[in-house]
């Protein structure tokens, strides 16, 4: 049975103004909402997505939680941490063959007592489309979808919007599976909701629209750097320079691409003079470890 957990539903996180000559020149104000500070181990949009799912699982006395993801998945990392905090068994269905070296994410998940099951990419697709096939193997288990996005997850973003309080002309988030943008768009009806794509997925616009009840949003696709987890030296240099200037860490998969995009859009006069932009820092910082493991020759100079 699941134990209790604290739910800081609308506690306000710090807002940090990003001062830059280009923003001064263009007459815009850019700030970051540091939502990665909302929980010490789960954090950011993963915590927002999981809050009400965990409450539902507790209320209905599930004995375990199962989910899916890749070897470097922030979601797998977060669910494993939640299970350890709650004292409940977690199950991770991992895409691909079992690696000889687990790396930071999977090693941590294993240390948090998550049971890891490695499946072929073909079988993974079947499980993703038919999660009941997973639940047949694990009775009395609550299933969280890949990336954590479902109707309960969206409620967590109401608490995010409520905690911000003040209004901005633009509210921006990085986009992976689309759940964060859908949740923010559903509950934030002041200003323009901007989603910076970190993946190449033509279906995301329709998915976000469906989850958000067709709330207004805009997708920005020009700064995905080639797709999910794809980077280059320009992006890595930007992330390192940003940390040196503002002491705010960015990950190379989501928040780094979003902030790079905001700077580039400012240069091209995308934002009208006088605009206020709030970028949501959605966490994902554990991904820095995985990136640095794979790219020791050009590391991100911050570790979590």
Q: Could you explain how this protein is built, in words?
A:
The chain is of the alpha/beta class. The protein has two domains: about 15-40 and about 150-295, 3-Layer(aba) Sandwich (Rossmann fold), CATH 3.40.50; about 45-150, Rossmann fold (3-Layer(aba) Sandwich), CATH 3.40.50. The chain is built from twelve helices and ten strands. The strands form two sheets. The chain has a six-stranded mixed beta sheet with strand order 1-2-10-7-8-9. Strands 5-4-3-6 form a four-stranded parallel beta sheet. α2 (about 45-60) packs across α7 (about 150-165) and α7 (about 150-165) packs across α8. The radius of gyration is 19 Å and the shape is globular. About 45% of the residues are buried.
The biggest beta sheet is recorded as: 6 strands, mixed
> Structural class of the helices, strands and pairings?
alpha/beta
Number of helices: 12
From the 3D coordinates, which CATH architecture of the largest domain would you assign? 3-Layer(aba) Sandwich
In the CATH hierarchy, what is the class of the largest domain? Alpha Beta
N-to-C SSE string, H for helix and E for strand: EHEHEHEHEHHEHEHEHEHHEH
Please list the strands of the largest sheet in the order they lie side by side: 1-2-10-7-8-9
- Poorly predicted runs are none
Overall radius of gyration: 19 Å
| Termini Cα gap | 31 Å
Mean pLDDT: 92
Percent helix, as a range, is: 40-55%
Strand content bin: 15-25%
> CATH topology of the largest domain, anyone?
Rossmann fold
Number of spatially distinct domains: 2
Overall 3D form: globular
Count of beta strands: 10
């Amino acid at each position: 049975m699941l134990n209790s957990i604290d739910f800081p539903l609308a506690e306000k996180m710090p807002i940090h103004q990003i001062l830059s000559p280009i923003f001064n020149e263009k007459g815009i104000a850019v700030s970051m909402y540091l939502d990665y500070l909302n929980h010490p181990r789960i954090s950011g949009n993963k915590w927002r997505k999981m809050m009400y799912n965990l409450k539902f699982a507790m209320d209905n006395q599930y004995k375990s939680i199962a989910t899916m993801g890749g070897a470097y998945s922030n979601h797998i990392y977060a669910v494993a941490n939640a299970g350890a905090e709650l004292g409940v068994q977690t199950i991770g269905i991992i895409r691909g063959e079992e690696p000889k070296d687990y790396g930071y994410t999977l090693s941590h998940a294993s240390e948090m007592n998550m049971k890891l099951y490695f499946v072929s990419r073909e079988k993974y697709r079947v499980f993703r489309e038919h999660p009941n096939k997973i639940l047949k193997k694990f009775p009395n288990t609550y299933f969280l979808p890949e990336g954590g996005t479902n109707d309960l997850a969206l409620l967590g973003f109401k608490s995010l919007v409520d905690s911000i309080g003040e209004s901005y002309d633009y509210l921006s988030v990085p986009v992976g599976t689309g759940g964060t943008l859908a949740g923010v768009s559903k509950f934030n009806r002041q200003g323009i909701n901007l989603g910076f794509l970190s993946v190449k997925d033509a279906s995301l616009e329709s998915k976000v629209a469906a989850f958000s009840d067709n709330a207004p949003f805009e997708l920005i696709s020009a700064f995905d750097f080639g797709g999910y987890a794809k980077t280059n030296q320009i992006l890595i240099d930007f992330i390192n320079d940003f940390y040196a200037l503002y002491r705010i860490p960015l990950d190379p998969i989501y928040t780094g691409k979003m902030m790079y995009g905001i700077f580039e859009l400012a240069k091209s006069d995308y934002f009208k003079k006088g605009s206020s932009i709030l970028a949501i820092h959605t966490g994902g910082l554990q991904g820095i470890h995985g990136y640095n493991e794979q790219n020791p020759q050009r590391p991100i100079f911050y570790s979590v």
